[in-house]
Amino acid sequence: MSDRVVILTFKVLVIPMQLRFICATGIFFLLVANTYAFVANIFWLNIVSHIGYFIFAFLLFFHRSKAYNFNFYLFLSLTVISYSLELFNTFWVFSEIAILLQALSYLPLSLEATRHFKIKNLSYFMILYLISIIGLNAYLLLLHINEMKTYISGDVTTIIYTFYYLNLGALGVTAMVYYLNSFSKKAMFFISLAISIIFANVLRDMGVFYFKDISVEITESIIRMSSALFLVLFFITSEKSLKLDNFT
């Protein structure tokens, strides 16, 4: 009986600790490899390190795998597939398909956040604030899409990018509404995830449509990689309001 207890304890405590150590080490080396990929201009290493980072981030909290649901696996699958297709971005329309899959990957994130919405009675000031922020972001988004049209050739590509940024804008609005109506740790991780994705895409567009700068590319990559950690932390964290009594 005691041997069974020892074996069970080993499986419950030691194996997850070993897996977390391996994943944490892997994440560190992937971050180094990704930075080196930009310095040495190794495109495939950049893509592979991103894919590996999402996988290691997933395995880092594998002991909490019961917290992962269909929306998580759908986002992770679409993200990994889209990054994989970028390895073949010079062939056929793989680049456009990769962008389309990334756009679709934001939908399950928004759907997952709405599952935790608990809309409370908002003041007129808060309603006006939300409408103003949403309107401002919509205006800036339309300006950005209109600006990109001068750099994009083809109506299909324009439609894909428009769809992409509309989903990205919807993700940002969803994160903001979720956080303002929740003030929970889970909502904090989600809005951090959304901000990471949005900022990473803004920095990426600077290199794609305007000018390339290695410091911007490295910053974009680090921010995009951090979104993997915010992703798993959002899903494994329970919905519990933060203690803000002293600030209200």
From TrEMBL:
Keywords, comma-separated and alphabetical: Membrane, Transmembrane, Transmembrane helix
Top-rank lineage group of the source organism: Bacteria
Keyword Transmembrane (UniProt): yes
Transmembrane feature ranges: 12-32, 38-61, 68-85, 91-109, 121-142, 162-180, 187-210, 222-238
Coiled coil residues, start to end: none
Keyword Transcription listed: no
Name used for this protein in its record: Uncharacterized protein
Organism in which the protein naturally occurs: Gillisia mitskevichiae
Lineage: Bacteria, Pseudomonadati, Bacteroidota, Flavobacteriia, Flavobacteriales
